[in-house]
Amino acid sequence: MRIIQVIARVNRGGTARWIKELIVGLRANGDEVFLVAGNIQADELEDPCFLELNGHRIESLGRSISLISDIKALIEIRSFIIETKPDLINTHTAKAGVIGRLAVVTILRNRPALVHTYHGHLLYGYFPEWKTKIFVLIERFLAQFTNVLIAAGDRVKRDLIAVGIGDDEKFQVLRPGVQDFNHLEKGAVRATLNIPEKKIVVGWLARIARIKRLDRVIELGQNFPEVIFLIGGEGEGLDEFKSVASQNIYFLGWTNPETIWSASDIALLTSDNEAQPIALIEAGYSSLPIVAQNVGSVSEVVENGKTGYLVSNFSESVVALDKLINSDELRQKFGAAGRDSILHRFSPDQFISGHSLAYIKALKDMKS
Fold first, then answer.
1. Distance CA 348, CA 285 (A)
2. Which parts of the chain have pLDDT scores under 70?
3. Domains and CATH numbers, the chain
């Protein structure tokens, strides 16, 4: 099968990890896969996988909305599709989902099958209500021309269907496929980060953006002055966060899961909106208990009271962290259960086979 994966930009973060795992897995299965993407923003770093995967650059495509640039991007993507003659297009995230699908729809003869992946959604936490309504109308329209919709989580799917985007028949829910990795010796990693070995360490790993709510971590750090909070990631407003952070908050910049999770005792997620966060899956591989906001499809990664705690407000976060900070036994119990759960549910094999089934379904739908 010849497939084109389209995304607005391959900035560092969970979506880039999804894209890389998908393309590598599909190519290993014998599919011919192209990656098409635009440029990152000034405050972002491009994931190395764009070059590693021999990505095709669309210079006019990016995250920001610009009528002229977006029309150019549509024309460029359409030309690339006509030139390469793929069997199927899989678009990712909102911006590329709109431009990429419109590019396909305007191909009137022998157009490829269409799949769109929701790595979360923009229904809350991003825009004012009027912009969200426009987003919903656009997605309802494009869903009519899309053969299969993929949701990164059952909650994500339900939220989208509830506002009239797609239906049960059109949607397929997929879990991320995440490779296990080398788990480093905790004392050695902490030594490189100048962290005392006996300190309790809470890790937080994400692209720094408003939706990720790093301000909550800053406040938690003030509530637990004897605990070290490790912040992995970069992005908008980082300097401002650094200026108000207490001394027990360490900023690592972009780091890898081997480093931050090997150094940590607890994993933390504070976002207002998420699908199935890859960072938490990696934390689970590292046998870490988790405290996470109960938003989006996070509950499909964290089992409340078994592998961690799902919280709804700041006070619950404080209580949950306090329980784990003060109990070695509870941390070990939740961490062991978390690793076992992750190993069974988030393997790369289920991820690739799930996509292959979705693509076959899309091709059959296209022919019917």
1. 13
2. 122-127
3. 2-177+348-367 (3.40.50.2000), 186-345 (3.40.50.2000)
